[in-house]
Design a protein that fits this description.
With 429 residues, this protein is an alpha/beta fold. It has 7 helices and 24 strands. The structure holds flavin-adenine dinucleotide and 2-acetamido-2-deoxy-beta-D-glucopyranose. 2-acetamido-2-deoxy-beta-D-glucopyranose (NAG) binds next to helix 4. Its EC number is 1.-.-.-.
Length: 429
């Protein structure tokens, strides 16, 4: 009997997994709850529920351009078009994902509108329950492997700020941010300084009267922020009409956008999966993805602070190599130890345990390790180097870091030149 593989989700992780299982002696299916590929890269102007009553998965906003140059977002073996801008809009990058899906005939493997509702370990197999989201017909099927590719930028992490319920203006989470129009001439409070907080803050500041940015990140942003952009520390309390900050200052506010991140959310994973699930971390995972207690289950794409697409794609290739038997995993104790060492390091540094998913400076070594173990082609070191310089450029100026054009010379080297756009679309200060 052929190995049976269930891939849950048709975003970049699910699609790359399918692509690399394609043509192997494996029976696989991709179950996707929406009617689309590309997951979070598909912009949807709506918020709330979709046409089938499911919570909208995508967190994409209209003006998003990638925060990494295109070279760092290439899917293995499928060259990024020469004429693609260096930092494409979501729209252009989404076309690339669709082209990939079509080129490898992946559509025929995807069961669209099928939502996975329960994954259980029973009698040494995975029992996967799923339903058709329109007809509500239920199915159950057995699999040898499960690749969980459902993303983790969908379920908002809501802060609990005193006075939140008394605030009379509108509060949204970045998951529901689509475009700046509704904030025109308003006084808007953006909370959080992650990638979305910075990006959405600048997007809204283009039209808002004031943009109050509250965060505690101790990073020296050297961006020349416009005069309507005001930095504040953490919020102490919200009132009916505004916010009091921990430094005692007060600001009148019309609307709030929480850019406070997302939760890991796997409502379909039964306890028998052996994973410990927390909104801020999923453990224990060997190599950031293999479920140590049930190593025929892999969770892709949980890594943060990395060239996420390259990392996900390498994980998909590793997963495929594992499934077809190109390598075998070490015994459970060894896998547990690899995880434990990383866990200990996070604790020793006094960092929040969510850092267990952080690649950051370990990114390049991660690629080396994945390849050494599984035999997959290594993600070249040049990508890590590009990301490092891109991060520097962001600190320098959030308005201009996307004006750099990167050219890869070889696996270790690249060149970068500055090419300001002829006509600046976004007017800045
Ligand atoms: C706003 C935003 C900007 C980003 N910008 C960049 C960037 O510039 N560069 C970069 O490298 N990365 C970026 N990322 C990271 C991005 O998450 C990854 O690039 C990548 O798209 C993640 O792919 P994924 O397949 O893991 O998840 P997703 O794209 O989230 O796909 C998951 C899929 O699983 C499906 N699904 C979920 N639950 C179920 C279920 N129960 N049953 C069936 N199907 C289900 C969903 O419908 C979805 O199609 C960004 C993310 C966000 C949110
Ligand atoms: C498994 O290894 C063979 C031989 O190196 C290779 O041709 C094949 O692509 C690999 N398969 C996967 C899914 O990695």
């Amino acid at each position: 009997m052929k190995t049976r593989v269930c891939i849950v989700g048709a975003g970049i992780a699910g699609l790359s997994s399918a692509r690399h299982l394609q043509g192997e002696q494996v029976d696989f299916v991709v179950l996707e709850s929406t009617n689309y590929v590309g997951g979070t890269w598909r912009y949807d102007p709506r918020t709330g529920k979709d046409e089938n009553g499911l919570p909208l998965h995508t967190s994409m906003y209209k003006h998003l351009r990638t925060n990494l140059p295109k070279q760092a977002m290439e899917l293995y073996g499928f060259p990024i078009p020469e004429d693609m801008p260096s930092f494409p809009s979501w729209k252009i990058y989404y076309e690339y994902i669709k082209a990939y899906t079509k080129y490898y005939n992946l559509y025929e493997h995807i069961k669209f509108l099928h939502e996975v509702t329960l994954i259980k370990r029973k009698d040494n197999v995975w029992q996967v329950s799923y339903r058709h989201v329109i007809t509500n017909e239920h199915f159950q099927q057995e699999f040898d492997y499960v690749l969980v590719c459902t993303g983790h930028f969908s379920k908002p992490n809501w802060p609990d700020i005193p006075g939140q319920a008394t605030f009379r203006g509108k509060i949204i989470h970045s998951h529901d941010y689509r475009e700046p129009c509704e904030f025109k001439d308003k006084r808007v409070l953006v909370v959080g300084a992650g990638p979305s907080g910075m990006d959405i803050g600048l997007d809204v500041a283009e039209v808002s009267r004031r943009l109050i940015h509250s965060h505690h990140l101790k990073v020296n942003f050297r961006t020349p922020f416009p005069s309507n952009f005001i930095k504040k520390p953490d919020i102490k309390e919200l009132t009916e009409t505004g916010a009091i900050f921990v430094d005692g200052s007060f600001e009148e506010i019309d609307s709030i956008i929480y850019c406070t991140g997302f939760e890991y959310y796997y409502p379909f994973l039964d306890e028998s999966s052996g994973l410990t699930l927390d909104p801020h971390h999923v453990t224990p995972l060997y190599r950031y993805m293999v479920n140590v207690r049930q190593p025929t289950m892999l969770l892709l794409g949980l890594v943060v602070r990395a060239c996420v697409v390259a990392a996900i794609n390498a994980q998909a290739r590793y997963a495929a190599a594992l499934v077809v038997g190109n390598f075998t995993l070490p015994p459970e104790e060894v896998m547990m130890k690899e995880w434990q060492q990383r866990a200990d390091a996070v604790v020793a540094k006094g960092r929040p345990f969510s850092d267990i998913h952080l690649l950051a400076e370990k990114e390049d070594q991660y690629y080396a390790d994945l390849s050494a173990e599984s035999g997959i082609d290594r993600v070249p070191p040049v990508l890590f180097k590009i990301r490092t310089l891109d991060t520097e450029a962001k600190l320098e100026n959030l308005y201009t870091y996307r004006d750099y054009v990167y050219t890869i010379v070889d696996n270790d080297n690249f060149i970068r030149r500055y090419e300001p756009p002829a006509q600046k679309e976004c007017c800045g200060p």
